[in-house]
Amino acid sequence: MPSDSTIGRLRWLGTRRRFLNLTLTGGAFAAIAPFLLSARSPSKKLNLGFIGVGGQGAVNLEAGSSENVAALCDVNETVLASAARKYPHARRYVDYRKMFEDSARLDGVVISTPDHTHALAVMLALKRKLHVYCETPLAHSVWEARMIAQAFERARVATQMGNQFHSCENYRRVVELIWHGVIGPVREAHVWVSHTFGWRPAAGGGTDGDTGIQKPPAEGEPPPKELHWDLWLGPAPERPFHSAYYPSPNWQRWWDFGGGTLAALGGQWLDLVCWALKLNQPRTISAYGPPPNEDLAPASMSANYFFGVRSDMPSLKVSWHQGLNKPPILQKGKIPSWENGVLFVGDEGMLLADADKYILLPEENFRGFKPPQPSIPGPKSHFAEWIEACKEGKPTGCNFDYASTLTEIIQLANVAYRVGKMLQWDPVNLRATNCPNAESLIINNFRKGWELPL
Fold it and tell me: What is the arithmetic mean of pLDDT over 150-170?
């Protein structure tokens, strides 16, 4: 963990100004992207480095294939070799720290690694003023997210968090309906997902990433010969390899590497609420579920956030539910039983949405309703929007100012769940004023050689 003096200095470095700006403008959605450095002719290809080239990383690599793939990095030699066959001129690395040492020829990086390694790779890129695309969540802790936000202010480069739902047509139309006041002022919102990346009681509760192990294995296993296990661990505490941790999605259920379903999917689903309702920082956060496990995130849990008045919007309660947990209004059959969804409860009606559709409720009250003309333009794709921003200096929908606030909101619920207490949140000083025990979960430790460059 950083020293107390360093923590105090960094809490205040730009934090008060940033928080006041968000408060005055009505939330992170209104943050204005700074003028971007290194904008270039749209016809000139970018030199990109890709960190993590399997799974979602392979998808991102394909999305960036119209540019110059200049560097490839993966801790799995087999995955790396497969990508290198497609891009034989790209330099190859197993340690992204080495890639950044050779970064003079790069314009930007794409980060598609496990959660616990996001922040260091992002910070190394921002420190070198490289454009950055990073998968969600942006950071593994509240403190990491805040440090990234401050580094982003200084770097003035094009950034995008990889919550691809943000660029879908349906999300834009939902945001427009909320902003047009179609259901009146919204004072309550619910988000639920059925996935269960976490440990579960024997009685049930999901299987996603559930290996049946409830605590770190006492003994390790031989790592696959193609895997650089120590590099995969990165900043996480040292431990022997075990298949309970690797490959994905196993790592997502362990606190040291991921944050369960909330960290995995909160960036996609809470994003719609954050955008439409102009969220800034919550005043209180609480969470409940099975008794907390020291090492593993839960399969099923719920969280409640309370937000104050934002711009032209009233105070608000937002609830999150995952796994077996569902909003009471859904359990009582008062809304359609969707597997995943976002429900906005307004004074004059409700809006139920997912990634590709929405309905206004009660339906009889909105028969014949004609939505407003679309006003929020959409990109060709989430990744393409970032490429365009790199070349032309245009803003992105999920730049690291917006994304860091969304990530803080996500990680705070996991903190509240783990300490078992409602948090009274002081966003300026990055403290739960009523819970000193939360400190060690807000600001995480780093293994020697893997500290953030501040």
Answer: 97
Which pair of structure tokens corresponds to residue 297?
């995130």
Neighbouring C-beta atoms of residue 14, cutoff 10 Å: 15
Query: Which tens digits make up the pLDDT trace of 218-253?
Result: 999 999 999 999 999 999 999 999 999 999 999 999
Q: What does the pLDDT look like over 305-358, one tens digit per residue?
A: 999 999 999 999 999 999 999 999 999 999 999 999 999 999 999 999 999 999
Q: Tens digits of per-residue pLDDT, 174-197?
A: 999 999 999 999 999 999 999 988
Listing DSSP states for 335-359 in one string gives S---SSEEEEEETTEEEEE-SS-EE
Contact present, 244 and 287 (Cβ < 8 Å):
no
Cα 207 to Cα 198: distance, rounded to the nearest angstrom: 8
Distance of alpha carbon 260 from alpha carbon 285, whole angstroms? 18
Long-range Cβ contacts of 37-44 (<8 Å, 24+ apart): 37/129, 37/155, 37/156, 37/157, 38/107, 38/129, 38/131, 38/157, 38/390, 39/390, 39/391, 39/392, 39/393, 40/107, 40/390, 40/391, 41/391, 42/388, 42/391, 42/392, 44/391
Which structural domains are found in the chain, ordered by start? 4-167+380-399 (3.40.50.720)
The rounded distance, in Å, linking the Cα atoms of 64 and 387 is 8
**Are the beta carbons of 197 and 260 closer than 8 angstroms?**
yes
Residue 52 identity (one-letter amino acid): G
Q: What span, in angstroms and rounded, lies between the C-alpha atoms of 311 and 279?
A: 10
> Considering only 154-158, 198-202, 319-323, which range has the smallest mean pLDDT?
198-202
Q: DSSP assignment of 117-156, as one string?
A: GHHHHHHHHHHTT-EEEEESSS-SSHHHHHHHHHHHHHH-
Kind and range of the H or E element at 9? helix 4-12
Rounded to 5 degrees, φ, ψ at 287 are -155, 150
Confidence at residue 214, expressed as pLDDT on a 0 to 100 scale? 85
